[in-house]
Design a protein that fits this description.
Elements (H helix, E strand, L loop, with lengths): L12 H41 L8 H25 L3 H4 L1 H4 L10
Helix pairs in contact: 1-2
The structure holds magnesium ion.
Amino acid sequence: MSTPPQTPTALTVAGFQQLIRDRYLATDAARGVPGTFMWFMEEVGELATALQENAPERTPTDAQRANLAEEFADVLAWLTTLANIAGVDLADALTKYTEEGKVEGVKH
Ligand SMILES: [Mg+2]
């Protein structure tokens, strides 16, 4: 008898939002949307810096490459935090992009 193939545990948008909710909701809710938006924008600024450091005309170090990935993660984590305290289900919101006929052409 053979064992079924193992599938890797996929990280889902809903699972990530729940993880952020479980870990941080009490603190995030107490801070509120305005303060959390400031943290989010700070991370967007860090991502901008990391993108510049990793521009094609430069020769980024391994640490700079690693930092770029971390800043993408930070921005996504803080965006997810905002969704939690604003009462938005991200997986549901993203159906805007996944369901046929909802978004065509540019993103806005
Ligand atoms: Mg950061």
